[in-house]
Structure formats: structure tokens, C-alpha cells
Amino acid sequence: MTSFDNITITWLTNTALSGARLYWEYLAKGISMPKGVSIPVAVSVFPDELYAAPRSWAEQAYPKLIHYNKLEKGGHFAAWEAAAAIVR
What we know:
This protein is of the alpha+beta class.
């Protein structure tokens, strides 16, 4: 499935606005990175993601960061674009 397929599905099913609403609410509230998360966390960063957190920022947000992974490909829809990289 390509990005074009994903866009077509949202267009034909008339779900683009409901999906975009989540982003609008996120930006309108000025939500930033979490801080002081007290559970063990692993972070994977994809090069084509809208926002790729540097390791230093991930360490500040997640004091119990147990794994930081910078992948070679993938972006906002990494589960579709680079599924094999996620599960290895």
C-alpha cells in the first residue's frame, strides 16, 4: 500500500476531516514533549517523521529511557512504510 492509497482511502470514505481534527487539537493546545515519565520507555526515531526527537530530548522527557533507536527509513506512517524495521 502506498501513501497515495492511504490518501485515496481517506478521501473516498470521507474520513480526512476526522483524522485531521486530532492534529488540529494537538497543535491548538500547544502540547509539547512529556516530562518525567516514570516508566521504562523505548524510543524509535524515523528520518521522515514530522518531528524527530534528538536523543538528548528523549532522555529529558523519559528519565528511564532504556532504548533509543534511529532508523534508516520511515516516516509518519512508519508501520506501513518500514514495518520490518519496527519488528526486528
